[in-house]
Amino acid sequence: MSDPRARLCAALDLPDADAARRMAEQLGDAVLWHKIGLALAVQGGEALVRDLKDAGKRVFLDYKFHDIDQTVANAVAGAVRAGADLVTVHAVAPVVRAAAAAKAGSATKIVGVTVLTSLDASDLEAEGWRDGVSALVRARAQTAIAAGADGVVASAQEARMLRELLAPGAFLVTPGIRPAGSDAQDQKRVATPASAIRDGADLLVVGRPIVHATDPRAAACAILDEIDAALAHPAPR
Question: Which CATH number fits the domain 4-232, given the four candidates 3.40.50.2020, 3.20.20.70, 1.10.287.600, 3.40.50.300?
């Protein structure tokens, strides 16, 4: 059976790199993947990437690059040199193409961000999109994959739809994961670890339920148990 640690990413959404480093040390070998978000980019993020890689961890660099082609290419090239295993860009064709070209020949995966899990249909409607969340996720996911992305980021509520829509090898990252009974907080499209796994997610991103827990390592281990159980009893397709 596959190691459930390969499916869980702890989001180190903490005030600075030192706090993130301490959290990673506290989690220890219970967590293999760590996400570094944009807030840490100017607060020691690059050194943190190196330290995590030196400790044998996998790093998800969630900076959501979105700029002109050359700027995106330069940024992704820097992420590759730093050792990032996974990098997010916005699911816009020129952005994805530039990122895919910049990481060519490396093991780094590029994933396109579709619709943030903090948004719902009413938020999109306020921006002029009236066809619902799923339609926009579907369109952006297809755009990203066609432009050369290795996968996409979407809520687990769209995971089953995307797994059926995209090629089998597409890497599906699902943030907004909340253990059963926990508070959704500012996330609007959430799912439990078990449902995300059963619907086809490859990597589950979990932040506050782990890093704000009284015992973060125990919280991570509980989520791993839920992932393990879902892997052992997959839902029929």
Answer: 3.20.20.70
Q: Is the pTM of this model over 0.70?
A: yes
Q: What is the pLDDT of residues 93-126, one digit of tens each?
A: 999 999 999 999 999 999 999 988 887 788 777 8
Q: Say if residue 148 is exposed, middle or buried (CB neighbours under 10 Å; 0-12, 13-18, 19+).
A: middle
In sequence order, the β-bridge partners of residue 210 are none
Q: Catalytic site residues?
A: 64
With 0-12 / 13-18 / 19 or more C-beta atoms within 10 angstroms meaning exposed / middle / buried, residue 93 is: middle
Chain segment 119-162, per-residue pLDDT in tens: 778 877 787 777 778 899 999 999 999 999 999 999 988 999 99
